[in-house]
What does this fold into?
Amino acid sequence: MSTSDDLVLSLCDEVWKWRLKESPELASFCGIHEYDDLWDDISAEAYTRREKCVQDFLAKAVTIDISSCADKVALSLTLLIADLQSYLKGAMFKRQ
It folds into this structure.
């Protein structure tokens, strides 16, 4: 496994853990009960905070050299970047 592969897998893990923490209802649905005592925060501040986090994740993702990744890891990075970009496109609707 290359260094780029390790970076991708680490970032995917970081994003997944962040998603579960930010969306405790999703975590419960996925069978992870660490956040069962919490609800998703749908405040304007939470949306703004999450948007900033996603921008930071995307900035990290696009700096990884995809050409040195194994095929499956490169696909994971491509999908992660697409998912983060999609989130940011939808972020403009947070307050409507």
